[in-house]
Design goal:
Rossmann fold; 8-stranded mixed sheet; 7-stranded mixed sheet; 14% strand; disordered N terminus
Length: 1010
């Protein structure tokens, strides 16, 4: 017989139903004394022990710690007694001086009634939010369902669900330790129990927390909300709340009056968000937080900038001037996408606090992982490993929170060791509509916030038209984050007074909702009337508060008219003090040589080929790899993995923090890196030799990520935003995996500096190469990055002394495809030694990782050497350039195929091969130099990618510009195709042989016109 059936046979069906509701798992526990095991229902689904479980464990320790009735009950049950023996036997709870009660009647009923009350309390804790009054409009159910759970007492007749009667309402019942509704009282009447439960769980706050599998956390939440009278506010707190509501609402009203035809994505309908955010910040500051990083979509952003970040109002108002001219740098962005950074005194605590609002495009939730990465970096640089100084707040829209997958990806970073920010406060502005989409069509889950349940984050739903409830919930949320270092969600159930924007007509699609909204009394008036009625403020004081803020806005409006130029630098969300000159320009336009002393190379190579920890046993296959590294170091050569090791190690010596993140980066997808060694005998014992290079080196972080690209790349981008003095790299498992991170690439990396003057040195490592592995693991799509490069293909550049560095400064990002380990080493170091920061896209190899020819001598890496944008021919053809009939330009891995084919055909003196290592910005000067050296040669561009992909469409017009269209450059490579590569190995080899034959057929282009 199953444990559940055994229990039911002993206790009777009625009691078993009460003790084992649908969310209770039955587990067997053995008494710690002689006798057969007893089986009892043990709660595992609600975040706290059931009342019976607690008594049972207490009884196991000391039978006298429970009432005699329960002692007898547990004793009989553990002895395997039948129902008839278990229930009648417990001694009476009536004093012994009275006559004993008849068997099997009142005592049994009393036990059952107490158990019913425990189930009733638990039902409210689990499901009370389903009937909470959350919608300010009173027309929608926040959980999309009007059904009232059958185990909640909302009418007298539902008492029958628990086999209770109306006469039981005035009976006293013992309260379990899993509720705080009694305050200092241990017993309450059933009527009072129900009243207090309804006040706690079914009014303007809906609590979802019983899914949390930690008893302490559940108890903490219960205490914060169930304790009678806990949600009290002083007169001063109410006045402060009113003043903040005034500022929030009057700011929107002012914009509406002055610029009635402008889009601004106002906050009307959720004005309480401003005091909500300020409460979170105040409470966090009180608990020691010094830096708060915010991310949010565009609704309410201007209000947050004005009243939370406290940006100068004239800076905001001047953005509405249609005659405002842009400054020289940056194209700028619409005003409701911009960010901000501000250090100020928090008036509630009189402590310094730094607030930054991260700029964000209309891809609403794209900023989520960026904020988390920036927060993690700020915590790292402060040594704030527990998040007690730096925290993040994320504001979301309801439809986006439920609909966009990056939200889920971000949540799943929240507890990972190398990504956690020790808790984020999420505030959902729940408009109950997504643009024009009804929530019933926008999500399948009851609430938009259900995604947060995957990380056991408590969810506090609150009616946004009850400001005091909102403020209390936000205060608890901030305290939760500080206490448990875990995420928490505040769901502000509100409405959107206007359409999607101020020019939109919402009555087209939501007529009934907007009829109610037009009748809705604004929250400010409702709250002011309430405070006036109770005597907290007078009508005159209220009106003076409004007039005061209106006057502030008018004065700022007058000053804003003096602004003639938009300087986007005022909107920086991540300033780097001391990195640039005062005017934001680089301190120089030079880059030092990137080579390092040979003894440094040898030292790094020695450590890279050893295990710094004693008694650490590594895999035998890894021993062979380390011996190979040691052998290369002795021979003064480096392959790709060792060159990377040397680049990272040398930067660590110079005090530069290096962080490498991505899927399986610790070992490397292609088993070449092995930066984290694993002890073969002791679980989870690891060693990172890179952190044992120098006594006072900077730390090296290498961390395998979750199987996410969008979220993790956004995180690393945010991490790189925090400081220019760190090398932050994200590696795709295969190059084309960046497809699912395209939003971050398009919106933040490619355009970030132009839109927000945001320099960023993020490095993307994208394994790339046509090797017969099929269309999914071949191409990193270089054509996409090159198409988005901003250098002009038709502009003939002026080759000034600082041309190389100036060209890098003017570009939006750098795209390289290194063919040697040395050049990879140099480009990584150049990324930090440049006097500015640009994103760096590196197409990294796969087969070249172990190619015998793809090795570099230390001579190419020592002091005085630098990155080579172009590697010219250095063989026989270079010694007799006048005899060369064809000059082949290429990039990356195909160079080695070309060299092998040239050798097999004996064309070393007739065909020269030049490699473009830096593709964008295009090395006009060096390409011209190479073409001029071989005046009599045909020019060919050879690539292994298909013609409509790869590099050809980018390089062709630039060749024409630099050669003044005097000489054509012919294409050699694969024909145009839809897929980037074939999945058939034989087809791959046939196409490779075909284009290699064409590359070395010196008659291939005779008679053809360009």
């Amino acid at each position: 017989m199953t444990p559940l059936r055994l229990l039911m046979s002993r206790l009777g069906a009625q009691a078993a139903r009460l003790l084992a509701p649908r969310d209770v798992q039955v587990v067997s526990w053995q008494r710690r004394s002689s006798g057969p095991p007893a089986t009892f229902p043990i709660s595992r689904g609600g975040g706290g022990s059931s009342y019976m479980e607690e008594m049972y464990f207490a009884w196991l320790e000391n039978p006298r710690s429970v009432h005699k009735s329960w002692d007898s009950f547990f004793q009989k049950a553990s002895e395997g007694a039948s129902c008839g023996l278990v229930q009648p036997q417990p001694p009476s709870i009536i004093p012994e001086s009275r006559p004993a009660l008849s068997r099997g009647t009142k005592t049994s009923k009393l036990v059952e009634d107490h158990l019913a009350v425990q189930s009733l309390i638990r039902a409210y804790q689990i499901r009370g939010h389903h009937v909470a009054q959350l919608d300010p409009l009173g027309i929608l159910d926040a959980d999309l369902d009007s059904f009232v759970p059958s185990d909640l007492i909302t009418t007298i007749d539902k008492l029958a669900f628990y086999d209770l009667q109306e006469a039981d309402l005035d009976k006293e019942f013992q309260l379990p330790t899993t509720t705080f509704i009694g305050g200092s009282e241990s017993t309450l009447s059933l009527r009072e129990i129900i009243r207090r439960l309804e006040n706690t769980y079914c009014q303007h706050i809906g609590l979802e927390f019983m899914f949390i599998n930690d008893v302490e956390q559940c108890q903490w939440i219960r205490q914060k909300f169930e304790t009678p009278g806990i949600m009290q506010f002083s007169s001063q707190e109410k006045r402060t709340l009113l003043a903040r509501l005034v500022r929030s609402m009057r700011f929107e009203d002012f914009l509406a009056r002055k610029w009635s035809s402008e889009k601004r994505f106002g906050l009307e309908g959720c004005e309480v968000m401003i005091p909500a955010l300020k409460t979170i910040i105040d409470k966090s500051s009180e608990m020691g937080i010094e830096n708060v990083i915010l991310g949010m979509p565009h609704r309410g952003r201007l209000n947050v900038l004005a009243n939370v970040i406290r940006k100068d109002l004239e800076q905001i108002f001047c953005q509405f001037d249609p005659k405002l001219e842009a400054a020289d740098e940056g194209s700028g962005d619409v005003k409701y996408h911009l960010g901000m950074y501000h250090e100020r005194i928090n008036r509630a605590t009189n402590r310094n606090i730094t607030l930054s609002l991260v700029a964000n495009p209309s891809h609403l939730e794209a900023v989520d992982p960026v904020v988390q990465g920036k927060t993690k970096a700020e915590q790292f640089y402060r040594g704030d490993s527990e998040g007690k100084k730096v925290m993040s707040i994320l504001v979301h829209g309801d439809a986006a929170f439920a609909g966009q997958g990056v939200v889920y990806e971000t949540f799943h970073l929240s507890d990972l060791p190398s990504y956690t920010t020790n808790g984020t406060v999420h505030v959902v502005v729940n408009n109950q509509i997504g643009f024009t989409t009804d929530p019933r069509m926008a999500r399948s889950s009851p609430y938009p916030t259900d995604v947060a349940r995957v990380v056991n984050a408590p969810i506090f739903h609150v009616n946004a038209d009850d400001p005091e409830a909102v403020i209390y919930v936000c205060s608890v949320a901030a305290e939760w984050r500080n206490t448990f270092n875990k995420d928490v969600v505040v769901d502000l159930v509100c409405y959107r007074r206007r359409g999607h924007n101020e020019m939109d007509e919402p009555m087209f699609t939501q007529p009934l909702m907007y009829k109610q909204i037009h009748r809705q009394v604004p929250v400010l008036k409702k709250y002011a009337d309430r405070l006036i009625a109770e005597g907290t403020v007078t009508l005159q004081e209220f009106e003076e508060e409004i007039a005061k803020y209106d006057r502030i806005c008018e004065e700022a409006y007058g000053r804003s008219k003096d602004k003639k130029i938009l300087d986007i630098k005022h909107w920086l969300d991540s300033p780097w003090p001391g990195f640039f000159n005062v005017d934001g320009e680089p301190k120089s336009m030079t880059c030092p040589a990137t080579g390092i002393p040979e003894d440094t190379l040898i030292h790094i190579g020695t450590v890279a080929s050893s295990v710094p920890l004693e008694g650490f046993r590594i895999h035998t296959g890894l021993s062979r790899i380390l011996r190979g590294r040691a052998d290369m170091t002795r021979k003064r050569t480096a392959d790709w993995a060792l060159a990377e090791y040397m680049a990272f190690g040398s930067l660590l010596q110079e005090g530069i923090h290096v962080r490498l993140s991505g899927q399986d980066v610790e070992r490397g997808t292609f088993s070449h890196r092995h930066h984290v060694l694993h002890d073969q005998d002791i679980d989870r014992r690891t060693c990172v030799p890179m952190n044992h290079l120098w006594p006072n080196q900077a730390p090296y972080t290498v961390c395998n990520s979750s199987l996410s690209e969008y979220g993790v790349l956004g995180f690393e981008l945010g991490y790189a935003m925090a400081s220019p003095n760190a090398l932050v790299l994200w590696e795709a498992q295969f190059g084309d995996f960046h497809n699912t991170a395209q939003c971050i690439i398009d919106q933040f990396i490619s355009t970030g500096q132009a839109k927000w003057v945001r320099h960023n040195g993020i490095v993307l490592l994208l394994p790339h190469g046509m090797e017969g592995m099929g269309p999914e693991h071949s191409s990193a799509r270089p054509e996409r990055f090159l198409q988005m490069s901003n250098d002009d293909s038709d502009a003939y550049p002026a080759f000034t002394e600082d041309f190389e560095v100036r060209q890098l400064y003017d570009c939006n990002w750098i795209v390289v495809n290194c063919s040697t380990p040395a050049n990879y080493f140099h480009v990584l170091r150049r990324q930090i030694l440049l006097p500015f920061r640009k994103p760096l896209i590196i197409f990294t190899p796969k087969s070249l990782l172990r190619h015998p020819e793809a090795k570099s001598s230390f001579d190419q890496m020592v002091s005085g050497t630098s990155f080579q944008r172009v590697i010219p021919e250095d063989g026989a053809a270079a010694r007799t350039p006048e005899q060369v009939r064809r000059l082949i330009f290429c990039t990356g891995k195909v160079y080695y195929d070309l060299v092998k084919e040239r050798s097999s055909q004996g064309l070393e003196e007739q065909v020269a091969i030049t490699r473009l290592e830096q593709i964008s910005p295009f090395p006009f000067d060096l390409v011209k130099q190479e073409a001029d050296q071989y005046q009599g040669a045909e020019l060919v561009w050879c690539q292994e990618e298909h013609k409509n992909m790869g590099y050809y469409d980018y390089i062709s017009p630039r060749f024409m510009t630099i050669l003044s269209r005097a000489r054509p450059i012919w294409y050699v490579g694969r024909d145009p195709a839809a897929a980037p590569a074939t999945g058939n190995r034989n087809t791959h080899l046939v196409s490779l042989k075909k284009f290699l034959d064409t590359a070395f057929s010196l008659q291939a282009f005779e008679g053809k016109t360009f």
